[in-house]
């Protein structure tokens, strides 16, 4: 009797193709989205100088990055630091502008300045005794709100979003995270727990 190989059914073939499609999407989507975001940022920054000064793509981007590095380098010297401090003081005292300027300045300093705030990752018990969320201890002094020394401020970022929530709660409802760095905890949180730490 002839030995016939069982032909894969059409349904099985479609399932395999769909599985391969999903696997390909999982591999390509992060690369494509990251490349697209980088392209948008590059094109936007490059376009700031291109119409006025240069027509060669990329030159404006390089000049702006070099200018930012130059300002950072010069700010470490006394005279330039004094000039920058003067403008900083002036912008913080100008009505209307001060609100926008100070909020943006504090935001950037919280992530990368001398006053980094997201350095203490904690587990936070907010909604229920059995529910814990990852946050960052940002303020250990709630006297300004007449809430005493037993209360702290914890910022909880949202997954796949640039938003977050600030909670003020008792110290006993937070636990320090000791097995992860602040950066690893942030990555874990904003990716909804799917990123490997």
TrEMBL record:
It holds the Pfam family DUF502. It comes from the Bacteria. The chain crosses the membrane at residues 20-42, 62-87. Keywords: Membrane, Transmembrane, Transmembrane helix. PANTHER family: COV-LIKE PROTEIN 1 (PTHR31876), PROTEIN LIKE COV 2 (PTHR31876:SF26). This is DUF502 domain-containing protein. It comes from Niabella digestorum.
